[in-house]
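User: quick one, sequence for these tokens?
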């Protein structure tokens, strides 16, 4: 049973990578993509510039679903329901200092789970 769950998680990450690539393709100024995972399984993503500004619209999606869940439709993926958030950086990576500055600007100073 546990193996099945880890396989499902791995597949979700592969689909996230496909979404990240698509977002970056349409965002020439993007140096990374912010990924916000919600407790319902939906995701919010957006490209970010070297100054920590948005480089794309926010994309919301749910793996293997036609649309996002009803809860997200009501609250637009409320901050209280975030389980993980991070920035997927593109090569060449910004300096660690720049990554920290952008992460704090975009994600705040909360600790990640």
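Assistant:
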């Amino acid at each position: 049973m546990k193996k099945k769950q880890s396989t499902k998680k791995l597949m979700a990450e592969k689909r996230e990578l496909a979404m990240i690539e698509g977002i970056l393709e349409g965002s020439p100024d993007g140096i990374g993509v912010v990924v916000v995972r919600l407790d319902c399984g939906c995701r919010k993503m957006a490209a970010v510039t070297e100054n920590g500004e948005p480089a794309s619209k926010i994309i919301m999606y749910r793996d293997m679903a036609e649309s996002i869940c009803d809860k997200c439709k009501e609250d637009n993926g409320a901050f209280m329901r975030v389980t993980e958030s991070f920035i997927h950086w593109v090569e060449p990576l910004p300096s660690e200092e720049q990554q920290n500055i952008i992460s704090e600007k975009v994600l705040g100073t909360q600790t990640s789970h």
